[in-house]
Design goal:
The complex is a heterodimer of chains A (467) and B (173).
Chain A lengths: L2 H15 L3 H11 L4 H16 L12 H5 L10 E2 L2 E10 L2 E8 L4 E7 L8 H15 L9 E7 L2 E7 L3 E3 H6 L5 H20 L12 E4 L4 E3 L4 H4 L27 H4 L6 H17 L15 H9 L11 H11 L1 H32 L3 H30 L4 H30 L4 H30 L4
Chain B lengths: L1 H29 L8 H14 L7 H22 L2 H6 L6 H6 L4 H18 L1 H12 L4 H8 L3 H20 L2
The chains are: A alpha+beta (467), B mainly alpha (173).
Chain lengths: 467, 173
Amino acid sequence: MTSEQQRRVRDLFEAALDRDPASAASWVRAAAVDDAAVAEDVVSLLAHHARAGAFLSNPIVERAPDLLVDDPPLRDGTVVGSYTIVRELGRGGMGRVYLAKDDRLGRTVALKALAPDAIDDASQRERLRREARAAAVLTHPGICTVYALEEIDGELFMATEFVDGHTLRDEIDRGPATADQVRRTAEDLAAALASAHAHGIVHRDLKPENIMRSREGRLKILDFGLARLVEPSDAAAGPLRVTHTGVIVGTPAYMAPEQLRRETVDARADVFAFGVVMYEYACGVHPLRAREATAIPGAIGHVIGRCMREVPADRFASAAEVLVALRASDATHSARWWRMHQLVVSVLYLAGAVLAWQLKEWRETPISVALFLGLSAAATIGAVLRGHLIFTERMNRARLDHERRRMTRAMRFVDVAVTTMLAADGVLIAGVRALGAVGAFSLAVGVLLAAVVLEPATTAAVFGDER
Amino acid sequence: MADRESLAVSAIAPEVYNELRRVAAAYMRRERPGQTLQATALVHEAYLRLADAGTPWHDKRHFVGIAARSMRQILVERARARGAHKRWAALDRVTLSDTLAVAAHEDAMLPALDDAISRLEQADAELARIVELRFFAGLSIEETADALGSSPATIKRRWALARAWLHRDLSGE
């Protein structure tokens, strides 16, 4: 058919559309009586127009998710390379995940079918291999181990350790965790992240959905490094350099501001996500959804708060630093030092009283007797007060802050009194027993230093006092 | 016009193609079950990102045509990779006409449809463009008219012709 004829077909068809379908065919034949080929072409097109129904009327793009990602699941028992599919575990961001048996080694693995749209060309495949290799370096017990990246019949699969358990999301849905659970989870999570950061690997999509707790209670982070795989390839980027030029990968609710702005992302983005996850775990609600600014109580709250700072420089530089801060904030752990301090100072008081007795024996004057009595009284009071604090810390922790505030003044007074009396005793005995005088002065200085320098430092470390 | 257009398509289509893929994949990851992909949102997002990247688009109208062509490539390629042509070939010829009319097995139809559109392109390139915009990029009659610089009334009639033509072609008559 010539282009002239084609144009005629088009015009006739379009004109016929406005006519009554019943008489359209005869009208066309009459209008193109000189060219039967054109007439029959138009008539047949009109017939197909009448029968076309819903043909092409729903844009295919609306079903693009199914076409692009939703590969039909592999059936149970299907053999994929050297793996036998046991059952489907779920669908993740990269594709479906199956429970499978590795027939070579007889072990059970999680087999992830990687969505082909991310890995179509050779350079992307190479990149994927590189990332898998980097992720396979991570053998921390808190990280789901990558076993292998397999190319089977042109499809890519990633075999990883199978974690039998539930996700942190499930735990969050069950309600806020206890302070003890929060602490243990935070430390486990930070330790696992720290090990990855030490290898230069950033997760970039940390969220409650890809943190699992095994039946044995062990925390495992899944999909390490996978978030980077779907980014555009960057030939210049080594496996450890983190660049970000592609679409937003990751889950916006847990992404650091710089990641949302598509800027360069480093370990501090994970630190941010860690903060959000821990906040949600501790409070049962995402920080952005919290009606009022609920703070996580205690020193751990400060640590988590600092993780979620908007400016990366204000956060901890890596998960290792988070871990250090978490451990420092662990009151049960560092309170031991504080208790020891109380004990040592009490012993110093008593040593002062004993020394005063000895000095009185060497040179008994009304003043040395008075100093001995004064020191004995001060040492007793001081030791009792500190003993009371230790008792409160062990037995009634909730009242400790209150008791500490109540005792502060009395303890300062005791310290000053003990220091002054010891110094006076030293002056008094200096002419008789030089060594005794040195002992008295040393003790005075010791008590003074303990009160002025050591005590504020240990207290701040343990209780997070600002002063 | 057509030459310039096809030149532009071949020059920048890979970029658009990759971008659409990426945006679509990102949609998938954010996807909730049962959620459909908003074609216009997808194309819009891809456009904004490529425009930001300084790619020399004349305008958005121009871009939409290329995006629609890329969507066609992406979806057809995926359908081929998943063996759609085999499933299509296995369909009963007797019920084929019904299958087309009720828009069943549309993803299986894609490779065959793609071939049919290529044939349509030989006969009338504009009709093929309209199919790409309407079916692959999900544009309305008005948007299609805008993208092609034509009137909605004309596009509506041409769309009817294109559908009838493809329906006949796929029916094997």
